[in-house]
Amino acid sequence: MAADPTTTAVRSSARTGLDADALKRGVLDNLICLQARPPGIATPHDWYMALAYSVRDRMLARWAATFQTYAERELRVTCYFSAEFLIGPQLGNNLVNLGIEANARAAMQALGQDLDALLAIEEEPGLGNGGLGRLAACYLDSLATLEIPSVGYGIRYEFGIFDQEIRDGWQVEVTDKWLQKGNPWEIVRPNVAYYVAFGGHTQSETDPQGRLRVQWIPAHMVKGVACDTPMLGFRVNTCNTLRLWKSEAVESFDLQDFNAGDYYQAVQEKVISETLSKVLYPNDEPEAGKRLRLAQQYFFVSCSLQDMLRLLDLKGEPVGRFADMFAAQLNDTHPSIAVAELMRLLVDVRLLPWDEAWSITRRTLAYTNHTLLPEALETWGLPLFRGLLPRPLEIIYEINRRFLDEVRQRYPGDDARLARMSMIDEAGEKKVRMAHLATVGCCAVNGVAALHSALLKQTVMRDFAQLWPERFHNVTNGVTPRRFMLLSNPGLARLLDKTVGEGWVTDLTRLRALEAHADDAAFQDEWRGVKRANKEALAQHIRSAVGVVVDPTALFDIQVKRIHEYKRQHLNALYVVTLYQRLRRDPQRAVAPRCFVFGGKAAPGYAMAKLIIRLINGVAEVVNNDPAMDGRLKVVFFPDFNVKNAHFIYPAADLSEQISTAGKEASGTGNMKFMMNGALTIGTLDGANVEIREEVGDQNFFLFGLTAEQVEQIHCEGYRPADCVNANEELREALDLIAGGHFSRGDRNMFRPLIENLRQTDPFLVLADYAAYVACQEEVSAAWQDARRWTRMSILNTARAGKFSSDRAIREYCEQIWKIHPVSVDLDQRL
Length: 831
Ligand code: 26Q
Known about the structure:
Layout: H1 5-12, H2 20-33, H3 44-72, E1 77-81, H4 91-98, H5 101-110, H6 115-121, H7 131-145, E2 150-155, E3 163-167, E4 170-174, E5 187-198, E6 201-206, E7 212-217, E8 220-232, E9 239-249, H8 252-259, H9 263-275, H10 290-314, H11 322-325, E10 326-331, H12 338-349, H13 354-364, E11 365-368, E12 379-381, H14 382-388, H15 390-410, H16 415-421, E13 424-425, E14 431-433, H17 434-441, E15 444-447, H18 450-458, H19 462-467, E16 472-474, H20 481-487, H21 490-500, H22 521-546, E17 555-560, H23 569-585, E18 594-599, H24 607-624, E19 633-638, H25 643-649, E20 655-658, H26 670-676, E21 680-683, H27 689-696, E22 702-703, H28 708-717, H29 721-726, H30 729-739, H31 752-760, H32 766-785, H33 787-799, H34 806-818
Parallel strand pairs: 1-2, 1-10, 2-9, 10-11, 11-15, 15-16, 17-18, 17-20, 18-19, 20-21, 21-22
Antiparallel strand pairs: 3-4, 5-8, 6-7, 8-9, 12-14, 13-14
The structure holds ligand 26Q.
EC number: 2.4.1.1
Function: Phosphorylase is an important allosteric enzyme in carbohydrate metabolism. Enzymes from different sources differ in their regulatory mechanisms and in their natural substrates. However, all known phosphorylases share catalytic and structural properties.
Organism: Paraburkholderia dipogonis
């Protein structure tokens, strides 16, 4: 057969060759043709860009083949709607997924460049706050790896989560400028753009068929432009798309339709339009910039749904097939306006009857809940909502009216229930309850860990679970072993390959085979060697980031996550103060040397969280400068915890701190990343800790603290934190030491709000769990003294982490919720 020029192009073009030589040629080519720099004067950043473009070139044939396959075949696509995607650095991950890391290293070496140095240059897109955004990114990795047709839809923020600097012990927020030097992974598609309406009013009219039609006359329109990033699976041809929307002003001639040619008004509108996708909102921000946040949510949801409808048209499918073609997962309530917007597009734009539109909407959408904290459940004041989205609000009212009729029929005369379940909270200032809208408008609602899903049904969703028990599911979160093991812990990956074979990367349950080696002394030595090297690497990073020298033989006790009172970083800090006191009092006391590492950002408006950071830094300053603590105790606050530095933090941990108040942490995912990398957990029975302990066995998990039930009970009985202080001399001393200015250079005011909060209300039961936590930490120290026992437990943690792969989680979503199947992509097809 004669060679087909199009398929040959895919296999052997200068832009697709995977060997070191082809890569080298590609890099030189891109350096000159895209980066416009000859090698002689190229900076390391130029080399990074040239390499990134060369890797992207090698992904594009797969991307095109994936598009082609999805366009031609009869299939259902999962659309993951999320206001956040914390995808982390892309270069290393794409090299790993293509399987060309070694070749790239050789190619760059031949060009006089060090691959690791180039990897370190990459700015990560910080388009998320924490767990929820990172979960979305892990899921995109698993979706592509499992060859599931899918698209991630979100917002292309110009400024992501702020960079954190520590000055004088305080957090200082610095603007994230991730796009300043260009983003080689993004492909902007000006021709894929949609208009989104805001404000104005509605008008009703009767059409020639006698049906009531509503027209929305908006005050202004914003244009959303698609910015695509390829999401390649691990060693497969499937390359899915992360499609993020950037807002732009509608061109002036379009604007004239709405503004009758008012030039100054038009300029003003342009400013507003371009502000829409400017900045990511930090969570835990009370009331800040609410209006813009709602506008962002509607903006990305509307663009995404319009995009899905356009794809349907392109495939020549009737609109009635929408739900067969798409499953849309709502990552928390942030995209829940999708319920109203899909109804609007189907009823107002596509002119479908209400009931048919409702059936499509309900069959398409599913909702994941990520929190039980009542204050974190999203609501929007009615005047704000009506001002911004008058037509979607009318639709919500109509959905609510029909829904409440159903409730009334089921529970006649139960007005209290109606008020509890309504989408509109009528007590006080009226509000729209987004979780209710999502629950009514979706075919499935799921929690993110077994305990969380159970509590969801018992507490915030109780009435809904009674009405529709079949709608509620659990899908315990998972994380990708490609990024959090293979890429970030290559030493461990090599040892695992050698011991259990390479298949663990896509079938994490194969790590069970490690159990057979858990007591093998030679294997244990190798295991410890890997951990030791990772700790040395972290020690280097600590030294250059904060100037503190830490001993890599000490127990590395790590808590990294967003700073929040419910996560109880201050409980950990109280234990450090207790240890410090004990060592001061008894300098001869034998202790296992420990290095406490903290990391995480506080929301800029969350004063208590910022004070906790200040406390940790205050304690660090005193402890690290006290010669009596030398060789025994070190405390480090590692600044700017993000995906990039997570890569070297998780693999270096001996102990993982998962100490939230039981019932408050929906799942946690850091807990899983630590476990996979062989850290032991000290934790409460909260979120996925419960399942981690189930998997690893109670012998291999340091459990302490009140259960979720006990927490509830204590709150009901009336909690008196003073009783805990009175019953525990060490606790009283630790609090007094902090209050007395010992960690604030004599300033007795600095920590007053924190100490008073603990002594008076202690909403997260820090003091109630203190004694149990300290006792449990003593068990940790005892276990650490026995290196063989510790290593065995460490091996068993990795061996039993299989359940926490995001591949397992995605398979569960596919089976339980999306009813979706893999489709393999053939690279040799004609393009
Ligand atoms: C809401 C309104 C206005 C501005 C910001 C927000 C906002 C943004 C982000 C609210 C919440 C978030 C993020 C929440 C989050 O990360 N939750 C975590 O999700 C993880 C993945 O399921 C869980 O493992 C964690 O337990 C949960 O806390």
